[in-house]
Specification:
The protein has 14 helices and 10 strands. The protein is an alpha+beta fold. Strands 1-4-5-8 form a 4-stranded mixed beta sheet. A 4-stranded antiparallel beta sheet has the order 2-3-7-6, with no helix packed on it. Bound molecules: flavin-adenine dinucleotide. Flavin-adenine dinucleotide binds next to strand 1 and helix 14.
Length: 387
């Protein structure tokens, strides 16, 4: 099952599939059981240069287009793996690339590209503000040549397996800015330097293996030079990266959907009951066929979004629709796959229940379905703003 777009990146897909074949179901199952981090897998991806796909060549990366990064992530999911362990390394650095100073780019990007520095952690969500990002409460107060950070983040995934975090914090109180989107700033936090000096990371166990955490800041000092771009403009910088993030997550969901569909088709052909393969029954065929149609539709939108992104056009509509439709398609495919497998769908050794748990996340994070519908309602259809 291959993509239909011209930007197919067939060679990259082939190489990623080969790499992933070294990390079969047992590898992921074992990590899932222990809530472990796929260190060897991430190392292999880094060494092959895949996590540096989007870093320009002048900073040591591969300088590939977004569609290539999407193909890499799709194939990881398609092969039964879980790119959530490292996908953020691909896109968080975009904020430094677009808005960082030349000095910051030279200091960080080559080391991120080589794997010497891991930038896997993205500190935006907070327990009280949730989706209402501009209501976040973490503050960064300037004192001479440093900022003092206080507050708490939640769902900061991979923080324990990252050297750096991209942090969004309020630098000007909400009451003192004209618009709530102003007064927020982005920082590069060196977590290695801050751990034990006011920074605490606490893991959160979730229904799937995601290595996510809570992060507490108690008077953590950050050098002022770690501010990215201009003070007060951080929210805009984060928004700038969201279309890319949504398209990449959508590509992962498409990979998941393909994995579920292929598993379901194979099993429906081989499982014989009442003297014929169960896949001969349309009650078994139709949910798989429907999920396939949903996946193909989502894929077409995502490819359109990638093309627009690469042409420098506004792809907000496609990025949002693609993320929502792909997450729904992977869920429908997971549902059809479990149902086709009957009781075996629940057995760990089939990997289906694990992938089922993993793919459910994408209807909630990094953006929930309601918020996508709200974007479409307001920005595409021109309906009245609801919040
Ligand atoms: C495993 C995991 C990993 C994550 N990783 C990261 C990470 O690395 N970094 C990071 O910053 N964040 C991360 N997140 C956070 C994620 O982005 C949020 O969970 C998500 O954006 C939803 O926010 P919330 O959980 O606070 O839900 P809330 O904002 O509390 O929303 C709860 C529900 O209400 C709905 N809702 C809220 N407002 C409206 C409205 N106005 N209209 C209609 N419906 C509404 C939402 O759609 C949602 O269904 C992660 C989350 C999870 C679960």
């Amino acid at each position: 099952m291959t993509a239909t777009a011209a930007e197919d990146h067939a060679e990259i897909r082939e190489e990623v599939r080969k790499l992933c074949a070294r990390f079969p179901g047992e590898y992921w199952r074992e990590l899932d059981r222990e809530r472990g981090y796929p260190t060897e897998f991430v190392r292999a991806l880094t060494e092959a240069g895949y996590l540096a796909a989007l870093i320009p060549e002048e900073y040591g990366g591969a300088g590939l287009p977004l569609s290539a990064a999407a193909a890499i992530l799709e194939e990881i999911q398609h092969s039964g793996g879980n790119a959530a362990a490292c996908h953020a390394q691909m896109y968080i650095m975009g904020t430094i690339l677009r808005h960082g100073s030349e000095e910051q780019k030279r200091r960080y990007l080559p080391k991120i590209a080589s794997g010497e520095l891991r930038l896997q952690a993205f500190g935006v969500t907070e327990p009280t503000s949730g989706t209402d990002t501009t209501a976040l409460r973490t503050t960064a107060r300037r004192e001479g040549d440093k900022y003092i950070v206080n507050g708490q983040k939640i769902w900061t995934s991979r923080a324990e397996h990252s050297d750096l975090m991209l942090l969004l914090a309020r630098t000007t109180p909400r009451e003192q800015v004209k618009r709530k989107t102003e007064g927020l700033s982005t920082f590069i936090v060196d977590m290695r330097a801050a751990l034990g000096k006011g920074l605490t990371i606490r893991p959160i166990r979730t229904m799937m293996n995601h290595n996510t955490t809570e992060v507490f800041f108690d008077n953590v000092e950050i050098p002022a030079e770690n501010l990215v771009g201009e003070e007060g403009k951080g929210f805009r910088y984060i928004l700038d990266g969201m279309n890319a993030e949504r398209l990449l997550i959508a590509a992962e969901c498409i990979g998941d959907a393909k994995w579920f569909i292929e598993k379901a088709v194979a099993y429906a052909k081989e499982r014989v009951l009442f003297g014929r393969p169960i896949g001969q029954n349309q009650g078994v065929q139709f949910p798989i066929a429907r999920a396939y149609a949903q996946m193909r539709a989502a894929e077409a939108i995502v490819h359109k979004g990638l093309r627009k992104f690469e042409a420098g056009e506004n792809c907000g509509e496609e990025a949002n629709m693609g993320k929502m439709l792909a997450a729904e398609a992977s869920w429908a495919a997971g549902e059809a796959c479990i149902q086709t497998h009957g009781g075996f769908g629940f057995a760990e050794e089939y990997d289906i229940e694990r992938k089922f748990r993993e793919t459910r996340l994408y209807q909630v994070a990094p953006i929930s379905t309601n918020l996508i519908l709200s974007y479409l309602g307001e920005h595409v259809l021109g309906l009245p703003r609801s919040y």
